[in-house]
Amino acid sequence: MIELIPAIDIIDGKLVRLAQGDYAAKKVYSQDPLDVAKSFEDIGLTHLHVVDLDGAKAHHIVNAKTLEAITAHTKLIVDFGGGIKSDEDLNTAFSSGARRVTAGSIAVQQPLLFLQWIEQYGGDRIILGADIKDGKIASMGWTEESDARWETFLQSYVSRGVKRVISTDISRDGMMSGPSVELYKDMMALYPGLHVTASGGVSCINDVTRLEEAGVPAVIIGKAIYEGRITMKELEKFQLKQTQSC
What we know:
The structure is a single chain. By secondary structure, this protein is α/β, with parallel strands linked by helices. It has eleven helices and twelve strands. α1 packs parallel to α3. It is globular, with a radius of gyration of 16 Å. It starts with a strand and ends with a helix.
């Protein structure tokens, strides 16, 4: 059973999507992310991935009020990322209602601080963000590429208590060209106990089925929903099937 997690990316309080992390390729899909979040809850979805794109660029949380509105007016389990670079940012995210926080850049640039967060909050609340470009880890809103291979990067944290990872293949993000199924299979084979959430490239409900058949625990879906490639009816039907199989 795969967990369906719709994505809400925020710029200026609006729901947007980028292509391959390019801010110049921004497209606005809704003026009110809360209404969109409610529509996901209405069809039975339970999780939501919220990204503060302004925060990722500014290196601190910018859209905390939007996060707070979503968590205050829905029962969705929200994981939040974007701009979390300090203890203050982390506290802001949790106090604004995020159940989990995704941290990627900080894990690349300040590993000791990231490990402190894992120790303080536990591996179920701090998610490692592993954004991958050509096999290497990228950070800072994908504007910087490190020398670290994803295998080495994950190993250094899985051995220190990381339990969850959201991994995005940057080359596929926002392109609706299909997810990197083989990448996630390799990841799960190397780290069997790791909860892997696939992100990037999902173009249709069949892509979700492919990931489920590969054993991927969860998938983030964004542009395919907003471009109508995956309908709310399809999401509702898929979620109902998941619920009935429990």
